[in-house]
Amino acid sequence: MRRRASLVLLAFAVFFAALSPLLRWYAFPRLAKIPPNQYQETVLEAKPATLLDYGTLKAKTVDKVTIVQTLKGNVEESEKIERSAGRDVVVWDALSYIQGPDGKMVSKIPERYIFDAHSQDPVHATGESVDGDPVSREGIEFKWPFLTEKRDYQYFDAQSRTSSPIHFGGTRKFRGMDVYYFEQTVPWTKVPMPKTMPIKGITAEQIAKTGVTRWYTTKRMFWVDPVTGAPVNGEEVHKEELRNAKAMGMSQDTVTVFSGHVKMREDYIVSIVDQVKSQRVLILLLTSYLPWGFLVLGAGLLALSLWLEARSRRPGDAEPVRQQEPEPAPTPA
User: Fold this and answer.
1) What pTM was computed for the model?
2) Does residue 265 contact residue 229 with C-beta atoms inside 8 Å?
3) Could you count the other beta carbons within 10 Å of the beta carbon of residue 215?
4) Which among 115, 126, 170, 309 is least buried, having the fewest CB atoms inside 10 angstroms?
């Protein structure tokens, strides 16, 4: 009976030991994916900020500039691209909408970001764009990969349409979470005019013809949950200028369009942190809790199986051998 039990335990030990790497290396890449229909809205503010008054064509200090960023999953487009790409793809239609203290639109820049649902690597397909201009992204944008590593990543900058390293700056504490800090500085770079201008009747092409150019620099900072790869906080020290501005009748040749320290609004930080804390448990189940738990369980069952097998073979536990009684001697004739 003990030998039969030990064989059953041995079978379960092999099963759980084999299941452990399968969960980590087979199930995790196939189950941990960004949903194609995800919708997310984030509000950031710069308080105070410097903003160009297009009425007077002079920069002035304002109480607040608000930036609303929306990410909307385009399921129909992702299904089209998946058929040719042969993998799960997510298409995000993003919009950065900037408004002044009076609520009026200052700028809006749409994007279409196409990437692999699990690895977050960019997928190049028709429609990949920034403000209507076709782009070919290299590196990440908006989100880091699952199980983010302690290293630099290539990060795509939508303003300049280029990628450059975003540097790992160490592990930090943020709202009770261990997060990775990343920082990127984009030096002064000439960038295109937004297609949508805040003044009706004036287009980017008309401004470009005058010889006025738009320049931009930023220092962006992210606090990233390393398990889900989701930023739980983000900030930018952002500056934009118009150069050769006298060609448009301005008093100075260089005029500030926008300058400010952009920070995520507190209520959105709280919401994102709560969401990430709930999602990271699912990732840890597939990558840590269950694989290690099954491995330990398999080792325990193996030890128990060997112990039962050893007990079944102990001499003291075997049935005593009955001594055969000698046959009676034959009766003499």
Assistant:
1) 0.88
2) no
3) 15
4) 170
